[in-house]
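Fold this complex.
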Amino acid sequence: MAQRSAREARTADSNGKSKSPMIEVEGEVVDTLPNTMFLVRPIGPNGKPLRLVTGSDEDEPPAILAHLSGRMRLRFIRVGVGDRVKLELSPYDLTRGRITWRLRNERVE
Amino acid sequence: MNAGSVNLKTSEQIEGMRASGRLLARALALVEEAVAPGVTTDELNTVADEYIRDHGGTPSFLGVPAAAPGIAPFPGSICASTNDVIVHGIPSGNALQEGDIIGIDCGVILDGWHSDSAVTVAVGEVDDEAERLIAVTRNALDAAVAAALPGNRLGDVGAAVQGLVESAGFSVVRRFVGHGIGKAMHEPPQVPNFGAAGSGAVLEVGTALAIEPMVNVGSPDVRFDADGWTARSADGSLSAHFEHTVVVGATGPIVLTQRAGA
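Structure:
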């Protein structure tokens, strides 16, 4: 019988305190813009593009305008087109995000 | 947190656990054989419960207290987790349908020693994705077991599962983890099915672990039914679960719940 993860329980607690938990998704950088902004296409865990905003009727789900997190800027993490990244989105505006992590690119086929 | 330290088992104690694991493996094999369209999960529960009791063991899941307050103890001797149920499905009068997949998780106490094992099987013919999910999850367990070597770390076990599962395009459930096992069903340490290779506690000879990858086709998120036990994939996608009780031996991992021919 599986045990509940202690680590998971802890994160659940801290999420309970803050009013707006961040949504974390993975994405692929499709364009680099000035001012360390990027266009990122969200990708679901199954590797398919993720549609976050309903109501837009284009075939391709819209890309997210994302900036680099302060910590990544301090550490000079370079992000380029084609990189897989982790994004944090506010539940209130799913069209903008913050890049918090550049993933190792071994998952990209 | 992982309160307390790992209880390392002596070779005598491992023999005790081996007997428990063997009984569980035979019970699970019987349940696996009984799976067919039209069979209810209650009936599967009875198969396991009777076989274990007839052979001097006690089903360890029955009456396990819930992790959250206000929820009744677990009412079954097996967990029967169909389709989008990840783990801890409660046996019921609902009949299995052709094309379902069902995870059967069971535990035995024999002479005070716990063993814990699970298998996911197809009910009749299932579609390609379900078949692939089952194969990937089974392979992930095999990879995790192979990583349970003395000197390796817990993170190596988790990374073995995560690497295999995510390269197949599925996701690893993080809400639940494997666990140490011995005189109690849940002992330290917790055994996540994810993590970075080379991180975490070092595995020593005599560490007994229940390694149990839980894999979803879609997102790894979990939601619970009103019964407080049944854990489903949040997006309703299929989920599979395999588990063995394994001891880290000096010469390699010893699987205590290996089913004959499996």
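The helical segments of chain A are 6-17, 70-74.
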